[in-house]
Amino acid sequence: MHRPSLPRLRSALVLAFVAVLALSACSRREDAPTAPSAGAGASAAGSPAAELRLGYFPNITHAPALIGVTNGYFQQELGSTKLTTQTFNAGPEEVSALLGGSLDAGFIGSGPAINAFAKSNGEAVRLIAGSTSGGAQLVVAPDITSPEQLKGKIVATPQAGNTQDIAFKKWLTANNLTNGTGPDAVTVQNIDNPRTLDLFKSGEVAGGWLPEPWSSRLVDAGAKVLVDEKSLWPDGQFPTTVLIVRTAFLQEHPQTVEALLRAEQKSIDFASGQPDQAKTVTNDAIKQLTNSSLAPAVLDRAFTELSFGSDPLAATFPQLAKDSVTAGISEKETNLAGFVDVAPLNNVLTAAGKPTVDAAGLDKAQG
């Protein structure tokens, strides 16, 4: 019987030892647990979500959301992910739903978006896109021609701490006016927009700092514009409605978030490229949700006051955070480090051949 030489035997033993090590390593890799997801029972990180729960308002300033739902853009892009929608009347209510975990994403005003980030110590939500700019005005009785003439009057805003409430209270401070009662103060009352219209018609309020279409509805009822908020911002650009998402949902389901953003961009392109059809779709959606549609003159004016775009105008948010303190809504200025994440949006824009947007440094987490 032939016996292998000693060098050959050593080589065979070495090769066998290497093979055992390789098999052991493969076995360890196969047995290694996958990275845990952020929520119990959630899909593996990076997989499409089973469901996307989306919030928005039945309002002209949320036209991209209304168009996306009505035209089926969201469901088309989401594919097998189920779309569940819920409507709100003011931002603070939607913030509660997001922080409570009953919503995954929401179209919302800039003020409540900041508030959601602040309430959760910068953890719960991320700003991922813009939606609507402009469309907010201080409209008052026609005999009021100056800020001083608001003294002793009642002026409405939609809800305490919402975007228009903050803007109006900041404006009062800038004009050396006090929010309060009595002949030398301006009484700010938080009133639902339909009720504000009724109270203006009856003379019980002098006007309101309101979003579209409610500012146009008061103008249609005889009010005049005392302040157009566009005049208070560089280039007339300020975020009226933005899109935020729960941070955990963004981390678990980036594919679903990008699908949401692709659908929003389709809505924005439709609103910008086919404004007449967009007005009809938006008005019909509002009627379905509220049992009330807008008069043609109100609808036309409201759309001319708004512009739609996915850029969140991130550079304006530090000023908005300061405004919240000035308005007395927040005790201290919110640190916005890490608030903005436009990476998914820029992926969508790049794929569509569109210019990317800037996070203005707010995508950097706190050190």
Automatic annotation (TrEMBL):
The record's PROSITE patterns line, in alphabetical order, gives: PROKAR_LIPOPROTEIN
Q: Which Pfam families match?
A: NMT1_2
Which coarse location class applies to the principal site listed for this UniProt protein? membrane
What is the annotated signal peptide range for this record?
1-27
Could you say which protein family the record assigns here? Belongs to the bacterial solute-binding protein SsuA/TauA family.
Q: Origin organism of this chain?
A: Pseudonocardia charpentierae
For the keyword Cell membrane, the answer is: yes
What is the protein name for this chain?
ABC transporter substrate-binding protein
Asked if Ribosomal protein is a keyword of the record, the answer is no
Question: What PANTHER family would the database entry show?
Answer: ALIPHATIC SULFONATES-BINDING PROTEIN-RELATED, TAURINE-BINDING PERIPLASMIC PROTEIN
Superkingdom classification of source: Bacteria
Q: What are the UniProt keywords, alphabetically?
A: Cell inner membrane, Cell membrane, Membrane, Signal, Transport
| Protein's cellular compartments | Cell inner membrane; Periplasm
Question: What NCBIfam families is this protein classified in?
Answer: SsuA_fam
Q: Do you know which InterPro entries this protein is assigned to?
A: ABC_SsuA_sub-bd, NrtA/CpmA_ABC-bd_dom
